[in-house]
Design goal:
- By secondary structure, the chain is mainly beta.
- It has one domain: Porin (Beta Barrel), CATH 2.40.160.
- About 10% of the residues lie in helices and about 50% in strands.
- It has an 18-stranded antiparallel barrel.
- Strand 14 and strand 15 form a beta hairpin.
- The longest helix is centred in the first third of the chain and has 28 residues.
- The protein is globular.
């Protein structure tokens, strides 16, 4: 009887275990799976006249017009605690030899737990805060991506991310670790980002730290990895119709004079920015802001046709790292996209204001003004670089189709002409027209 009781108990335990396993399997089968396929076709025509380096006054090379294009195809998969995304991208200019550039823009897997921990590895965008330091720079057809591992925690108003990246040109078993001319400008990167949303108050605070290693020199002779650090924060306070934003970042470490030289200089640079926006109603809003990016104190501008040699002991010019620069320092991308004459930079002051008007759903108009100046005192030149006026409009005429257009006018100064080696009476005009179609081609859930 005793053994029979034991057998009954064991049988009951096995039945319970089998039932639990079946219930768990059934529960797993009930989990939602989601598959999506999205596409994007975007074309932008641009026309420009005047003011760029290398142009000859009165000649046709002081004008330019072209049409650029981007095509994306994205496949996404999601289920509980797992997500995958793969995006193929082609970007180029209409009529260009070689047909443009094809690459895998995104290819990552995202794993998470129910308590807020997660890990994402593979090719991915890094977009944080207002995208001033880390953004996807979506205006550029190729945009920005990183091959990286990102781990962190999100929950209860807290977000903590840690990102690590290590780049190499190929699987060199015996070829060392030299890296140049790859998909990224850096050899290695470590980033930590913390964000906190204050309860019951429309206040968000972020802190960012980056350590970036960039290689210089040549593989045949000698190369070296210089590490530079960035530390700073971003604050956003949005009570009702008012939004206040502020940011401060400091750069330190070392950087080489150019990618072929192993000589490095210490870095001591910083930037600060503030912006206030106000919504008068659903249709009308305005904004005003100021950016200050430090410059090299020994910056000198040689006269046209002359070579200037200046001995620098440190780098004091702030660099925008991997930010979406088109959003901040003027739509013409004169600064932190195209370089000044020479290696160094006199910094930038950007005082701006604008108005946004949305008369009907999907239609938006934006008018903005920028006053631009250096932060470094220049010999025989004023700090003022110029005045830029920007007019843009966008219209969502379908749920997945958007038309955008813009016109910008800059009146430069003698300082602008000297720094950029521009001509044509310091005047630059630029217009663009863009069509962006991004439909969802397939959606399935089971």
């Amino acid at each position: 009887m005793r053994y029979q009781t034991i057998r009954i108990l064991l049988s009951a335990m096995l039945i319970m275990a089998a039932s639990a396993a079946w219930a768990q399997e059934e529960k797993e089968e009930e989990k939602d799976n989601q598959l999506t396929i999205d596409a994007q076709v975007m074309s932008r025509g641009e026309i420009r006249k005047g003011g760029l380096p290398g142009a000859t006054e009165g000649k046709d090379d002081n004008k330019a017009s072209f049409i650029s294009n981007r095509v994306k195809m994205t496949v996404g998969y999601e289920r509980e605690n797992l997500a995958l995304k793969v995006t193929a991208q082609h970007s180029g200019v209409w009529g260009a030899e070689g047909g443009g550039k094809f690459n895998i823009y995104e290819a990552w897997a995202h794993l998470k737990t129910n308590n807020g921990l997660f890990a994402r590895f593979g090719r991915q965008e890094l977009v944080y805060d207002d995208e001033r330091i880390l953004g996807n720079n979506d205006w550029a057809m190729a945009a920005l991506y990183h091959d990286a591992l990102k781990v962190g925690y999100e929950g209860h108003g807290h977000k903590l991310h840690a990102v690590v990246a290590y780049n190499q040109n190929s699987k060199n078993v015996n070829g060392g670790t030299f890296y140049q001319n790859g998909s990224q400008i850096y050899k290695a990167m470590q980033t930590a980002w913390y964000h906190y949303d204050v309860p019951k108050i429309p206040l968000g605070v972020s802190v960012l730290f980056m350590n970036i290693g960039m290689q210089s020199g040549t593989e045949e002779e000698d190369y070296h990895t210089n590490y530079q650090q960035l530390l700073g924060g971003y604050v956003k306070y949005a009570p009702r119709n008012l939004t206040l934003e502020a940011a401060y970042y400091h750069q330190m470490g070392k950087a080489s004079l150019d990618y072929t030289s192993t000589e490095a200089l210490p870095i001591n640079a910083w930037m600060a920015a503030g912006k206030a926006s106000y919504n008068f109603n659903r249709q009308l809003s305005s904004y005003v802001g100021y950016d200050y990016l430090s410059g090299d104190k020994e910056f000198k501008v040689p006269k046209q046709g002359m070579i200037g040699l200046t001995k620098h002991t440190k780098m004091s010019a702030f660099t925008s790292t991997f930010g979406s620069t088109h959003k901040f320092y003027g739509a013409m991308d004169f600064f932190y996209v195209s370089a000044y004459f020479g290696t160094f930079s006199p910094g930038l002051q950007n005082l701006y204001a604008g108005v946004i008007y949305k008369p009907i759903k999907g239609l938006s108009f934006n008018a903005a003004y920028h006053y631009l100046a250096t932060t470094t005192n220049l010999e025989e030149l004023h700090k003022t670089l110029g005045h830029e006026i920007e007019l843009t409009a966008s219209y969502n005429f379908m749920k997945d189709a958007k038309l955008g257009m813009g016109f910008s006018f800059m009146k430069g100064t003698e300082t602008m002409e000297s720094l950029k080696r521009s001509t044509d009476d310091h005047v630059l005009q630029w217009g663009w027209l863009m069509l962006n179609v991004s439909p969802r081609l397939f959606y399935s859930k089971w």
